[in-house]
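Hi L.,

You mentioned the student needs an example of a multi-chain input paired with its predicted structure. This one should do, with 690 residues in total across all chains.
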Amino acid sequence: MSVTVAVDAMGGDFGPPVTVPAALAFLRENEGARVILVGAEDALRAELAARGGASHPRVEVVAASEVVTSGELPSAALRTKKDSSMRVAINLVKSGRAAACVSAGNTGALMAIARFVLKTLPGIERPAIATALPTLRGQTTVLDLGANVNCSAQQLYQFGIMGAALVAATQHCERPSVGLLNIGEEEIKGNDVVKEAAELLRASDLNFIGNVEGDDIYKGTADVVVCDGFVGNVALKTSEGLAQMLVTFLKEAFKRNLLTKLVALIALPALKGFRHRVDPRRYNGASLLGLRGIVMKSHGGTDVLGFQCALRRAFEEAESGVLERIARHVTRTGTHPALAESQDA
Amino acid sequence: MSVTVAVDAMGGDFGPPVTVPAALAFLRENEGARVILVGAEDALRAELAARGGASHPRVEVVAASEVVTSGELPSAALRTKKDSSMRVAINLVKSGRAAACVSAGNTGALMAIARFVLKTLPGIERPAIATALPTLRGQTTVLDLGANVNCSAQQLYQFGIMGAALVAATQHCERPSVGLLNIGEEEIKGNDVVKEAAELLRASDLNFIGNVEGDDIYKGTADVVVCDGFVGNVALKTSEGLAQMLVTFLKEAFKRNLLTKLVALIALPALKGFRHRVDPRRYNGASLLGLRGIVMKSHGGTDVLGFQCALRRAFEEAESGVLERIARHVTRTGTHPALAESQDA
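Structure written out for the whole complex:
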């Protein structure tokens, strides 16, 4: 059985010149995949022709006349851009024509439109944004990364369920360990919401390993790290900034003079191995979890390789039945007061 | 005029074998400095003798019979360890015998004891922990790093005043730029506390540049970045974890085989330059700001070079009159409703 992925082909900093070749590369590596490219039909057909994919049997083009821009307010995009490539791609998931959709566009608009069109899964109060990060031991999935600024303990608990379901489904790891992001400095160890969330997680059937701290993310202490969207967003962006600074400094160190430039040439194979391990493109793709459909956010500035990774992640989520797993977990733990309440609502 | 620094010589993972040689090195580079080593007298005198500092004219030893351990609860340390090296060092600041004190011990205990013994400056509700981080442009001072888990807008505003005063005094930069750490994903751009803090900062005479995001810390977008202690602590620890992971991966890349090992040898000078630029020891020393005295927290696991840096920072703060500058700023902006209230209290 094939899995169809709808692509917001106009989203991101580059649009079709990145999304179309990425889609074709993705189809080459996944024979069971089909793609629906959504956007300006002429531009998409021209790009397909230029890439030798004019009559690809597993590519379909669906027209959309508008594009959500990066600076647009999510509420405005939701209200006014009914025929945007982003919205039409999400509609394809809603109607069942696609099993998942991928967009490199405006994160806030994607979340707002996806929430409005698809709705949340039963028992889930708010969707969260989750992504995998490289660690010393493999990878760790962190959520939420910015969808929810103020989270209740119940929401953090639900993030734990969703993150564990995602990792269990896509990484073939039945009982992924779940850690709650906290700080160790204060005697009281974190605020009341985090303490209450720890109690909910401890009482659940998740493999909860307790509090973790910021450095545990990259140590790979837990398979899933749960935090509110403000903290998660700061942690992610701070990491991006630090990595960029270190790469800049490393380049400068090797560019200082003729000798160090020569050394850099010799060191290139070793540095390439290093670079591959931490290449952010290989980790591109953040899941909007908790919706009645799979929606994947790609980094806006990524290239073909990065967008291809986001497509692959969406495909894997659809294939592995992440949504069913979240729904099952929520049902199983449905007696939990936190969830019972939100299910009643 | 000389400046005396009191040293909790027993604190940290290593105690006198690190603190004593660091103190002697610090005295060698600062002729206007004096040091009071606080702790187990015999151990300190033995260490001094072993390092050729037995009769150093600018070293004094003050006995303290107890040590605050790293696992100890701050409240317990405050209540029971009246003769700890940490507390006696802080007492020396209180009595005026020392202009500053430095400890590599338990952060929570240091904050609790310093707050109890020294009290906060007029108009400052809560002290904050501040440290400088390397950036693409130089350095950025971030606060709070974990002393305050739930901050009011007024507290964040006061962190801005304190951070700006610290940078102005020690970095000879009269109007340092101040940024408020926030996230850009959500339409509402952050929570209510952060929005209110932005209004207070905008209305102040600080050089407030508005919201900054996590990656701006290492870009060096602002001289001072203000955030609550939960977020700051996660950002700092996440950075530590990421840096450690990248260094590990870099080492592994060069250790893969005989050829890459050889390349590593040739690349050593370039890599050393890189390492020096981001060496965490060079940035060691976090200020407990807002107290009626200078208290510097050193990383517990640092070595002689790192502890020496923390001593240097404490010395620079004492020499440059940071406390007077904070007090002056608070007075000048004393008409601000936020501060007027807390001054009345």
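You could point out the following to them. Chain B touches chain A through 67 residues (CB under 8 Å). The longest helix of chain B spans residues 229-254.

Best wishes,
N.
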